[in-house]
UniProtKB/TrEMBL annotation:
Coiled-coil intervals: none
Organism for this UniProt entry: Arachis duranensis
Transmembrane segments: 12-31
UniProt gene name: LOC110278799
UniProt-listed InterPro entries: Leu-rich_rpt, LRR_dom_sf, LRR_N_plant-typ, RLP23-like
Localization per Swiss-Prot or TrEMBL: Membrane
Identification of the protein by name: Probable LRR receptor-like serine/threonine-protein kinase At3g47570
Superkingdom field: Eukaryota
Lineage: Eukaryota, Viridiplantae, Streptophyta, Embryophyta, Tracheophyta
């Protein structure tokens, strides 16, 4: 084979190879993009089907699979990726449970289900909501222990579990929430002593724990608490 032919064959194959790489790259982008928005839709459809009462028909008509979830009531999306960023279903008279699918909303930064009658335990899969900054589950009928995995939601700034039927102890892992500013767990069935670590959470500004079965001292480090 002469050099000229050899080099043009090489160029040809390199070109094809690079085209193929580009093809796989773009296909994987498209596939993964669709997968994630579909995953978000599945998660919200699962939530809708675990809601047993919707007295004002907020979701019955509005949460139609014919439309993008970004147009659904209470949902906002990230403009760049079309992923669900906030879910706000506060004070809608809803009753039901949280399905494990909700843990698939990996872009979620705010979840507000406050002021409804959601019940049962929180699914462990919520541990995957690593971007979550605000979790408001207050004024519902949630039960089960305050989950140990809550300490893995390391972006949490506001955690409100007030007025539910949560039991167990305050998990020590809570001290892992280094950017937590608000911790409201009052009016539950939480027992045991307040972990020493709570007094050392440097960003904490609002701490409300009244009406539980807590005992023992609260160690203050450098915070001013509203108790
Ligand atoms: C659902 O509600 C939102 C906000 O009120 C509205 O913008 C949207 O058009 C509604 N979608 C349907 C299908 O009714
Ligand atoms: C959704 O689309 C289907 C088929 O295109 C249609 O039959 C149905 O009425 C639509 N539902 C709503 C709520 O628009
Ligand atoms: C989402 O989460 C559920 C339960 O955690 C799981 O069964 C499901 O396969 C996940 N993925 C999709 C694409 O819905
Ligand atoms: C949390 O939910 C409760 C009950 O709906 C509401 O009163 C409160 O304002 C909410 N807090 C935040 C920070 O959204
Ligand atoms: C504490 O947070 C880190 C990430 O910041 C996480 O890897 C670790 O699992 C968390 N620990 C607990 C006990 O949740």
């Amino acid at each position: 084979m002469n050099n000229k032919l050899y080099s043009s064959l090489c160029t040809f194959f390199t070109y094809c190879f690079s085209l193929q790489l580009h093809y796989y790259f773009f296909m994987s982008l498209i596939v993964s993009g669709t997968n994630f928005t579909t995953r978000d839709k599945h998660a919200l459809v699962a939530l809708k089907s675990s809601i047993t009462q919707d007295p004002h028909h907020f979701l019955t008509h509005n949460w139609s699979t014919n439309f993008s979830v970004c147009n659904w009531f209470g949902v906002t999306c990230d403009h760049r990726h079309g992923r669900v960023r906030t879910l706000n279903l506060g004070d809608m008279g809803l009753s039901g449970t949280i399905p494990s699918h909700l843990g698939n909303l990996s872009f979620l930064i705010e979840l507000n289900l406050g002021g409804n009658t959601f019940h049962h335990n929180l699914p462990q899969e919520l541990v995957h909501l690593r971007r979550l900054k605000s979790l408001n589950l207050s004024y519902n009928e949630f039960s089960g222990n305050v989950p140990q995995w809550i300490g893995a939601l390391s972006s949490l700034q506001h955690l409100n579990l007030k007025n539910n039927r949560f039991g167990g102890v305050i998990p020590k892992s809570i001290s892992n929430l280094t950017v937590l500013e608000t911790l409201e767990i009052g009016h539950n069935l939480i027992e045991g002593s307040i972990p020493y670590e709570v007094g050392r959470m440097s960003q904490l500004r609002i701490l409300s724990m009244s009406v539980n079965h807590l005992s023992g001292p609260l160690f203050f480090a450098w915070n001013q608490f509203v108790l």
